[in-house]
Amino acid sequence: MSNNGISRRQFLQWGAMTTGVVVLAACAPSGAPSSAPAAGSEGAAPAAAPTTVQYWFAWGNLDPAMAKIVETEEFKAHMGGATLEYKASADEQSILTAIAAGTPPDGGSNYSYVNFYTRGATIDVKDMAEASTVLKADDMLEGIWNSAFYQGGMIGVPGIECFNWWGLNVNANTAEQDGLDATTLPKTWDEVLEWHKAMTKKDDAGNLLTFGLDPYDAMAGEPDFLAASYGVKWFDEETGAFDLANPRFAEGMDTLGEFIRIAGPDQFAGMRQVEGNGGWGAAYNAGIQNMIIEGYWHPGETQIQQPEVAQYNRSGWAPVPADRKDANIMATGLHAVVIFKDAKNKEGAFKLGEFFQTPTALNTIFDEVGWIHGVKSWLSTIDKNKYPGLAFYVDAGPEVTEWTIGRRCPINSFVVTQYTELREQVFRDLIDPQAAADELQKRAEAEWQAQGLG
Amino acid sequence: MTSASQTVTGTTQVQQPSKVRSQSFGNTVAKFAIYTLLILLSITWIFPLYWMATSSLKDDPQIYTVPPVLIPNPAYWNNFYDAWTRFDFNQAAFNSVFLYSVPVTILTLISSLIVAYGFAKIPFRGREPLFWICIATMMLPWQVTMVPLFIIFKNLGWINTYWPFVVPSMFGNAYFIFLLRQFFRSIPEELSDAARIDGAGEFGILWRIIVPLSKPAIAVVLLFRFMWSWNDYLGPLIYINTESMQPLALAIYRMRTLALSMGTTAMAYPHLMAVSTLVALPIILIFIFAQRTFIEGISTTGLKG
Amino acid sequence: MAVSAPPAQRRGMTKTEKRNQVMGLLFISPWLIGFLLFALFPLAASLYYSMTNYDFIREPQFIGAANYVRLFTTDPDFWTVMYNTLYYVGIGVPLGIAVAFLIANLLNSEIKGRTLFRSVIYIPSIVPTVCAAMVWLFILNVQYGAINGILKTMGLATIPFLSSPELAKPSLIMIYIWAQGTAVVIFLASLQDVPRSLYDAALVDGANAWNRFWNVTVPLCTPVILFNFIMGIIAAFQDFTLPFVLTGGGPMKSTEFYVVNLYRNAFVQFSIGKASAMAWILFLIILLFSVILFRTSARWVYYGGEK
What ipTM is given for this predicted complex? Predict the structure, then answer.
């Protein structure tokens, strides 16, 4: 770590303070801002214990649940009278800016956890978790509990929505109309491809009317999925080594690309653009797409959005290549309340994380948003047949042969961007699959070095 | 009718006598072609707006149906009310008008007028290079200066306030300085000289001679600056932390994030279109009513190079 | 740019010159102070970041010109986004100006309802870009879009406007042109300033409509064309919201424009050092284009007699 004389913080503080002083002197008439709390002197922590908890959430859909949670007596009692300042839709741009300025909120959720943690923006909560009476490791599904750890440290308090990520969901009604037997769902890529062919229909002008599966859709979109399906560990978090040039990874890009070649690359890209602006599964709800690889939320969301499709939803194992047909792959990943290094009320943020383990919070979030958190004692109380297909996810745990913990690479978003481009070159036949895999490996390694992570 | 069309009518009359028969036939054909072209263009141009307005009256199935629904039936007029009450849009409208757009617009206008006058009307050493630096500040993407700026405002204690927008507007805006400067330069120097002989100072000349002559350019600054702050969501996204402080554009942006995660949020797209329509409406109305002054103002912006 | 130079000479300052020097600086002082307060430090900071490895979280490490070298040599995206952006700016801006100019000429002919037509053409540029992008998505989309829906019902093949790598950039250029209302209005206003006497004189000389357009209208509008060109280039190089919301850079990075990629580097991949280097490269490119335009403008821009 070479420091060239002047540290970033000194540099920024110096520049900003100079500017600040001059601004205040220059626009003395607008003295009103000085009535704001003296936040100018950073680090001058208030003497009294803070009575607010600032909590930022990256997405917009937790809002209805949060509105109800803060009104409950249980929440007020648990938080000891502290009020919650909740900011929703606070994307990574806003939180990064706040972190850079040294004024992050106390807690946050649905950010790129590993990225923040490995760079030291959020703290290790292991000690707090061990001291907690609310957070119980043995009452949480093992994979979820493990997903909260990274190289021995604990990233955050798992909660809000941590459950099983991968299942093949099929519209049984259209499957049967297409002459397929929906009592047994396809398990290998060969079988799924046959179903895909049977379900893909075009009109006389060659326009896509319906199709089977987009293998890069929804939860299958990230390299985690392709790698797991073909038994590749694309990133080793202990050594920082990449294995993206693995021939099986290339084989996977070729096989999955076949689905798209059959239906037409442009048609697929169009479908995904709309869904990028309207949530996953819009084409599934519309009956245009008949298979989708999705997480546990799919049955419930489909039920809420399109009950007439949801009633035919069947869920099973995510596809694997024929030579791995006995592998039951499943992923889970972290959603957690993370606590920022510069937080003023770390205890308060942790307490919020604790509250997400309680039945009050779990029930409210399940009812209002449809999300599940893998707390065993609570899972046994919910109706797993509430939505067609949900039972598969609830019961899957013990039968899983290969667990994946998703999004563990600190440069995951970089790899996803490059992977998205290169796999598209593969299914548009612009590059040899192995060459694409080699290129992906090369780019990932270069970025890893350039980011100073090597 | 605008002054512009009056001019045109005037010249038409002048040209009448010189017309011969074949020309008038040619004119009719040309006119027909022009109208056809204009009507086609207008339809193309207005269609997306029509689509926005009608989408706000649809329900989800009508959005995703093929063939597309051109006239929503049934029309869900309730969408406007439902969308508006989805967030505290009344509060957001208040914030947008009184905390953000109005103060920022007025302050930008005053400061830009003063600076533009300096650049346009007073010869002094270093004026040209300084002016070029001013123009060049428009050329650096905001994404990179955002973080250092945020740190400045944080140190001033201005997070979750509108000061980060209001205070900088007291120091002029490069685009408007450019625009006003161009306009001022087209005002004959003799007018200022006459006032100087009468003993007027530079400020006096600015307020009593230049400003009254610059109403159209001022209208442009007012409309553009109002529109920009009205539509700005990127700034408030960074600086505004509480829902009670958020402006309309940020509320719309949050509606869009809701639409992204459609899980429990049925009607996200129609509601988004409904609030978009409602929020765009005031600006459209301002334009329609201020059009005449505005067009005059804009006319002189680039003219005198 | 014409300099209305002070009449007096440079040696020693006359009383008037001194007064002007003070008054001039006084008048521009709001901008000057604002620049020193709110622009200089951020600019210096970003220049410093561009020579560091920095992620907003850890201390920046000084690495000299490495970010620049890497962008020009090994970066997987830089030349792709540079090509995309030059394509978009190089075709979009001139085409936008041509279309806007032609529409303005149509509007300037002797027609009824000009106010209405003018409003219709202008209003799209007022609609918030986020909303406009969402609307266009549901117009151009291959599966749910209005246009393709109509094509489908007519039994024709759909057009993947935004989802084929070949069509995505032209489609975005189309939307860019749709939002050129400001340029149309600026042109229209300047057309109305062209003296009628010049057209009448041309008529007397027997010039046909094309000649009148090419030899009278166009030359007289060149200052405005220059203005629109420069503003257009500054804005188009930095276009962000439309591609970001509409295509997210896809398909196959075909709409990954410069600032979209810069944003991705800064706020998705946490490489603010590299993003800052990109910003400074872009700044120099825009500056270069503006200077070239100004330098060559003497050859093609016609300034009226008075200065």
Answer: 0.81
